[in-house]
Amino acid sequence: MRVNDDNFFKWLEAGYPRPQLCREDWHSLNGEWGFQEDPNDVGLDQKWYKTDRSDAFGKAIIVPFPPGSKRSGYAWRDPQNDSEVVWYKRTITAENLTSSLEHPQWFINFEAVDYECDVWVNGQHAARHRGGYTPFSVRLEGDAPFEVVVRAKDCPIASQPRGKQSWRKEINGIWYERSTGIWRDVWLEARPGLAIEDLYWRSDVEGAQLIGQITLSKEPEANTKFTVRARSKNNDIADISVCPNTRVFDVVIPLPQIKNNMDSQEWLWAPAHPNLIDLFLTLESGRGVDRVVSYAGIRSVSVSEDYLHINGQPVYIRGILDQGYWPESYFTAPFPEAIRDEIRLILDLGFNLSRIHERTPDRRYLAWADSLGLLLWAEFPSSYVFDDSALTDLSAEWLSAVRRDRSSPSIITWVPINESWGVPQIAADVRQRAFVEGLANLTRAVDDTRPISSNDGWEQPATDIVTTHDYADKPEQLQCAYANESAMRQSVNGIGPQGRRTLLDSDWDFDKPVIVSEFGGIALAEGNSKHWGYRTVGSKKEYEKVFRGLVFALLESPFLAGFCYTQLTDTAQEVNGICTPDRKPKLPKQTVREIITGSKPHDSQVRPRVVTEHAVGVAEK
């Protein structure tokens, strides 16, 4: 690809794993690797990382799929007692290292390895990373070939941030298989000696500008020049050059076009018009030239007493909870196009938001949502006990995830904690409450441009949005809970539907938006003997009736700012999805869309409809 001419979308369509920082010279390392279980944890003592220990790797696995999954091609030797320690090996030859740079420095990028990871290159320890949901890089030094060995340790302990990965040996309840080891893309890229290491694009709609925070790989030398060219709809709109003298510096791109509110829809990002600005960055120094392609969306997110607002316009949230699970590959998409198809499916069904549940998203998920106009709530995988280890690990990795994803315009809310998981005594324990409040405030310190749902579902301190999880199995129960002012006060300020207080700080007085951020979960048992769900029905006719009734009960409330239905797909033992595991809707798409948008029975209800119209029209484009 030619960096000067092609926008990020060409990289996204090619499956590039990091769409907001694209380089021309890259090579996927997905595919077959040598593999070995280490159930007795003897590999370190026996030095399996040494170049003369090829005999230790007697098996093979297909990366990036986790062991035990069908796509990985590797079945656990003992499925009921899978190994906590696994090893990988791959040789990188000179043929893998072709670059247009004069003096390239090569890096291996790991998008995610669960949970503790060590990497050796040619027998020398090169990196250590802790955390199963964030990326890291390893520099290759010297000449090819490079023998890369990876050791991953994934203990089934509840203090480890694990999200929906079961800490038990078998899947159970609403928890599923573990993604031990490498479970996201591994890829090579070439960079010059001084390179752009990180980008953060921050919208300033009020100031009619885009602010870029640029982080270099090291301190710049004299005569270093940085240039950014901005384009929109194939027209150049800015060309700015600076001579940075620090490793981290800001660049301001003026966008006076958005000051004209009659033209603003052509420039601002929103679901109905997901406009993106293409950004072409060049860093020139005595160490070479680094050319990078990026993108940004200009938009604001705010909260009033009634709604969330995009660019000052109220938005009624019609969300779906997305587990991001595939039967053949667990939490790893079976192929890059599956991520795109998932985003399109959500929009076609009439939803305007996806709640990325208990995981960090693949970065291509964010890019497709940015491109197609799907709003996102970004959540982090929970731990399930409160101790010093959980506190340290969750804080560090959550902040890393926020920094990784904060440039994405589609993310409109951060969700660091869900349902008091990991902080079960938050209502009474001062330390647990301080932890959640501190996590919310740390998030604001890293990114103050989005609201936070601090402990989604109940027992919320320091929250910008009031959320409740209400798995009523009858529409009448939801109608009673949210129909009028008195009912709303009782539901939010009294004991909530899950038997806990909704807010910990103070009573709600119609001063923050209220969203039912989990409800539904209807299991369709038709032809399925395993039918876990919050309510089970036996036929599609009954399924549609209950589904319609629950959604319409919430749409009828004049006080709610939106909802999020559980869930998009059947997931392992759960059959409470709108779709089957292979992403086939259980009802016709048009029927689901009509129910979710509620256009006919609720036309008289006062609420914003801008985003609704976009969602309804997606399938017709």
Q: How would you sum up this structure, described in words?
A:
The chain contains ten helices and 35 strands. The chain has three domains: about 30-185, Galactose-binding domain-like (Jelly Rolls, Sandwich), CATH 2.60.120.260; about 195-295, Immunoglobulins (Immunoglobulin-like), CATH 2.60.40.10; about 315-620, Glycosidases (TIM Barrel, Alpha-Beta Barrel). The chain has a seven-stranded parallel sheet with strand order 28-27-26-25-35-32-31, with helices on one face. A hairpin with a 2-residue loop joins strand 15 and strand 16 (about 235-240). The relative contact order is 0.10. Helix 4 (about 390-405) packs parallel to helix 5. By secondary structure, it is of the alpha+beta class.
Rounded to an integer in angstroms, the radius of gyration calculated over CA atoms is 25 Å
Query: What name is given to the CATH topology of the largest domain?
Result: TIM Barrel
CATH class of the largest domain: Alpha Beta
Overall pLDDT score: 92
Looking at CATH, the homologous superfamily of the largest domain is Glycosidases
Q: Report how far the terminal alpha carbons are from each other.
A: 28 Å
Oligomer: single chain
Question: What is the count of distinct domains?
Answer: 3
Architecture per CATH nomenclature, i.e. the level-2 architecture of the largest domain: Alpha-Beta Barrel
* Total E-strand runs: 35
Based on CA inertia axes, which overall geometry fits? globular
How is the largest sheet built, in terms of strand order? 28-27-26-25-35-32-31
Class derived from helix and strand content:
alpha+beta
